[in-house]
Design goal:
- This protein is an alpha+beta fold.
- The protein has a five-stranded antiparallel beta sheet with strand order 5-9-8-7-6. The protein has a four-stranded mixed beta sheet with strand order 3-1-2-4.
- β8 and β9 form a beta hairpin.
């Protein structure tokens, strides 16, 4: 990743929050690396090295700054759009591909050699895949130490360490302090630490993001798509039941009133899945996006520019790709309210029940692929063709033939999905947009998008929409969100 040192130094000197997470400053005189907004005295220019991600600084032997806390940086989007392979690899690493596997296995999943994968990581990130995984684990552990009251044993396993001993050694080596000393320092700095439940199963995590962030817009979108009994969407909170690995529970996400972050209250039967829960929640709210960079790019199109004023569209993700795909099939050729009714019937009949005292409306987990592959779906009010589509999709996911959360690239994702009965181009693009997080996914057959681009003069032709969208690459999914929002506000 090429970073201009003088530009970076000016951003550090100004403590410009717009650059937070886009690079880190490794300071040779102190041996630490910092965020651009670090409140520490400005280091001399000749002592600074600027790197694209925290892992590059860690691999070079620098330790995280205790004042600006790199673990609470709002993500590092600098690699977005620079390498599709690196982007997909980072997604797989975040999903735990290197927790038990090797870089050779990761490279094989990407269809390249191990040596080529390492070369791409060094070129675009300045760090190896293993360094990225180790830094991810370390910084999440530091986050849990600072923000929760979890016992250190649970912190170790929740952040992906294989043993408490390795966790302790890594923390001491990196921070020259014990985990307990770090927590004592955090408590002295902050009046209160987010409480954990009596068994450590309930915690609150802070999920930082880059401003601007339009909570009302994203919550309105999620409310329209909510699955009854599984999700509850209120103006000030998003709640849902979750299953991740063998763990089950609920999450509740609210906006912070005084900082650019969301607050996630998590009740989980097994805290070892916390790092994956945090990753999934960031995807649901698209917290790693850089809305200013995307808006500036889209504003180059005169037809889109009026829709961007004061708007900060993000692409809401999903908790589970299979859930989204089933919901997309249920919604075909029916209204949103009718699709919600069908989903409610499906969940109540085939979903596992879960008891939540604080949220009685959350009563079920979404059905698993195994439970739906041969389920009796008669009486739900669906055509036979749609029933067969759900059966076929469920069997493919259950057998491992189709991975709806795997980052395969847009073209391959859409091609694979379109092989299944009941899934056409529009549905495949929509799944790619929200489940596999493809920023360039674009359902150009969508009538609402064509109407929005027509700006009151009627829908444009599909070919015209497709041609206009070429200028929006690689952010066509974000353009779609702006167009949908514009048409909704006009109704």
């Amino acid at each position: 990743m090429s970073l201009d040192p003088h530009t970076c130094y000016r951003a550090v000197k100004a403590r410009d929050a717009r650059f937070d997470g886009r690079f880190f400053t490794a300071v040779r005189s102190t041996g630490v690396y910092c965020r651009p907004v670090c409140p520490a005295p400005l280091p001399r220019f000749e002592n600074c090295t600027f790197v694209a991600c925290a892992a590059a600084a860690q691999e070079a032997g620098y330790r995280p700054c205790l004042r600006c806390r790199p673990e609470v940086s709002p993500g590092t989007p600098a690699w977005l759009g620079s390498s599709a392979t690196v982007s997909r690899a980072l997604r797989l690493i975040a999903d735990g591909a290197l927790v038990a596997g090797k870089t050779e296995d990761l490279a094989a999943r990407l269809g390249i050699g191990d040596r080529q994968l390492r070369r791409l990581f060094v070129k675009h990130l300045g760090a190896s895949p293993i360094a990225v995984e180790q830094t991810r684990r370390l910084l999440f552990a530091k986050k849990l130490i600072d923000e929760t009251a979890l016992p250190m044993t649970q912190v170790a396993f929740s952040s992906g360490f294989s043993s408490v001993r390795r966790f302790n050694d890594t923390i001491r080596t990196t921070y020259a302090r014990t985990p307990s000393a770090l927590r004592k320092r955090a408590r002295a700095r902050r009046a209160a630490v987010a409480p954990a439940g009596e068994d450590g199963s309930e915690i609150t995590l802070r999920l930082p993001y880059r401003e601007p962030f339009d909570w009302a817009a994203i919550i309105a979108f999620l409310q329209l798509q909510a699955t009854p009994h599984v999700e509850s969407v209120l103006p000030d909170a998003y709640c849902r039941t979750i299953r991740i690995g063998d763990a089950t529970g609920i999450v509740e996400v609210r906006p912070s009133t005084n900082e650019p972050q969301l607050l996630a209250r998590i009740c989980l039967s097994d805290t070892r899945e916390l790092i994956r829960v945090s990753t999934q929640l960031r995807r649901i709210f698209d917290l790693d996006a850089d809305p200013n960079e995307i808006r500036d790019h889209l504003a180059s199109d005169g037809r889109l520019r009026p829709l961007l004023a004061g708007a900060s569209a993000r692409v809401p993700g999903v908790w589970d790709g299979f859930e989204l795909a089933v919901r997309a099939i249920l919604a075909q050729q029916v209204s949103l309210s009718a699709a919600a009714t069908l989903a409610s019937r499906l969940v109540r009949r085939h979903g596992e029940t879960i008891h939540v005292d604080s949220r009685p409306e959350l009563s079920h987990l979404f059905p698993t692929p195994c439970s739906l592959r041969s389920a009796d779906l008669s009486g739900l009010g669906m055509p036979k063709q749609r029933t067969e589509a759900i059966h076929s999709l469920s069997a493919a996911v259950d057998d491992g033939e189709l991975q709806l959360d795997a980052p395969l690239g847009l073209e391959e994702t859409v091609a694979r999905l379109c092989q299944f009965p009941g899934i056409g181009e529009w549905t495949a693009q929509y799944i790619a947009m929200r489940a596999t997080r493809e920023p360039d996914a674009f359902p150009d057959a969508d009538l609402v998008l064509r109407k929005a681009l027509g700006n009151g003069s009627g829908p444009v032709k599909r070919r015209e929409l497709r041609e206009a969208a070429e200028a929006w690459r690689p952010w066509r999914a974000y353009a779609a969100m702006h167009l949908w929002a514009a048409e909704a506000s006009a109704d």
